[in-house]
Amino acid sequence: MPNKHVLHEILVCAGSNMIFNGISAWLLMKGGGNLQWGGDTSFAADVVVTAFLLPLIVAFIVIPLQRSKLSKGELQPINLGPSSFMQSLADRFPASTAKSALLFGLIGILIIAPVTLAGLYLFGVQTISPEYYAIFKGLWAGLIAAILVVPMVLIALRENAFTHTIAAGGN
């Protein structure tokens, strides 16, 4: 059942990114001073870099992994139909893993980072302690991964000539 598989991928990707990013932020920043908008301890710079790297890296992992399972017959192609926003989004991505991963990274820089920083600004965040930033970063990274893994899975498992050839055992 496609929905069960997609839900599993959401939970695994969100959970692993939440734990990895939260712990990494805490280990790198513990014992330091509060983070600020600019300077050597800039949370804004970290948000921008993470908003690019996280989707890029996750796409480089998820898309080939899903395609491998598809080629082995462990998964079937998924198409949520033309009324699905996520399916129509996924269908617009290139077939190339590298191009799709780069596009996800650009989405991170052009959409996720500005929205996140605008939210922090609107909530009046001027400084944040390393402990609270680690919690924020873990939850934020988990949310990004949970949202973006859906189109990544749909890109990898979309029905096209490539998947038909694999499923038929041809070249």
Layout of secondary structure:
Elements: H1 2-29, E1 35-36, H2 43-71, H3 85-91, H4 97-122, E2 127-128, H5 130-156, H6 161-167
Antiparallel strand pairs: 1-2
Helix pairs in contact: 1-5, 2-4, 2-5, 3-5
Walk me through this protein's architecture:
This protein is mainly α and 171 residues long. It has 6 helices and 2 strands; from the N terminus they run αβαααβαα. It has a two-stranded antiparallel sheet. The longest helix is centred in the middle third of the chain and has 29 residues.
**Unreliable residue stretches:** 163-168
Structural class assignment: mainly alpha
> What does the main sheet amount to?
2 strands, antiparallel
- Helical element count? 6
For the secondary structure, the number of strands is 2
Radius of gyration: 18 Å
Helix content: over 70%
What average pLDDT do the residues reach? 90
Shape: elongated
If strands are numbered along the chain, what order do they take across the biggest sheet?
1-2
Distance between the termini: 27 Å
- Number of structural units classed as domains: 1
Strand content: under 5%
Order of helices and strands: HEHHHEHH
